[in-house]
Every structure is written in C-alpha cells, then in structure tokens.
Design goal:
The chain has 111 residues and is mainly alpha-helical. The protein has one domain: Up-down Bundle (Four Helix Bundle (Hemerythrin (Met), subunit A)). It contains 5 helices and no strands. Helix 2 runs antiparallel to helix 3, helix 2 runs antiparallel to helix 5 and helix 3 runs antiparallel to helix 4. The radius of gyration is 14 Å and the shape is elongated. 28% of the residues are buried.
Length: 111
C-alpha cells in the first residue's frame, strides 16, 4: 500500500465503516480542502500559532483515515511553527497540497 497510508488504519476503517466509508472520505476531502485554504491564509499572515493549530488539525484528521504521509508533512509544519521557524512554510504548504491530492486520488481508487 506504499508509505502513503497506515495499512492497519485502512483495514480497520474498511471493517468498521463498511459502505459508510464513502461518507467518511468525502467529509475528509471537503474538510481538508477548507483547512488547507485556512492554512494558506495563516501562512501568508506568518501567524505561527495559527499555522501550528491548523496543521495539527489536518494531521489529526489525516491520521484518522490512515493518510500517514500527509499527517507526517503536517506534523513537520506543526513542529516548525511551534518553534517559530516559518521559513519553509510555503514549501511545506505546497507539499501538503500535492500530498492531499495524491492521497485523495489513492483513497478513491481503494474504496
């Protein structure tokens, strides 16, 4: 399943959610896109605390659906914001956007 996902989380979701998994993934996709727009704004504002908060939120929802690579990128951004290191924020945002789209495509193919 590659390093994009946590295979155990994906297996548990399939077992627990059954046919309802489509709703979960649609909600994840919509929420993540809204949060990424918010992340873009707070990065532009150079607001470290808000960057940390939004990155943390995306990380949590990503972990819930087994999107390990996306969660890892968000964790990196969250940690850098916590430390006040915002120099790489725009680059990480671009990576997060790309990884979200790759993740959503892969999830839609799996389910």
């Amino acid at each position: 399943m590659s390093n994009l996902f946590d295979a155990q989380v994906i297996a548990e979701l399939k077992e627990i959610m059954g046919d309802d998994i489509d709703f979960l993934l649609e909600t994840f996709a919509a929420d993540s896109r809204v949060k990424i727009k918010e992340l873009s704004v707070v990065i532009e504002e150079k607001n470290a605390e808000d960057i940390r908060r939004v990155a943390h939120s995306i990380k949590g929802s990503s972990k819930n659906v087994g999107a390990k690579a996306l969660a890892d990128l968000c964790e990196t951004l969250e940690q850098q914001a916590r430390e006040g290191k915002l120099e790489e924020s725009n680059e990480l945002l671009a990576q997060i956007v790309d990884m979200l789209e790759l993740t959503l495509k892969s999830l839609s193919e799996q389910f």
